[in-house]
Amino acid sequence: MSGAGAAARFALQGALTMRTAPALLDEGRRRAGEGDLVVDLAAVTDADSAALALLLDWLRAARAAGHSLKLCNLPQGLVSLAALYDLDAVLPREGEA
């Protein structure tokens, strides 16, 4: 993974659901392809399985471009969904090695 400089931050807000996630797909892919990225979900008010799929897509895009993607401030509902689908270990959290 690239290590030059600090990772850019991408703060999401509002609902991150099947209704809103598609509009964010390309922007997240673009940002993930530009360099290391931290996605901050502190202001996310609602998240469903589409949010999980979106984050996994961005993670794949970052890795394909040779960059890292970390998540911070995951809403508890999203953490629970990831655990339900046995994906909690796959989601890289900020501060983890």
From TrEMBL:
InterPro entries: MlaB-like_STAS (IPR058548), MlaB_ABC_Transporter (IPR052746), STAS_dom (IPR002645), STAS_dom_sf (IPR036513). It comes from the Bacteria. PANTHER family: BLR2341 PROTEIN, INTERMEMBRANE PHOSPHOLIPID TRANSPORT SYSTEM BINDING PROTEIN MLAB. This is STAS super family protein.
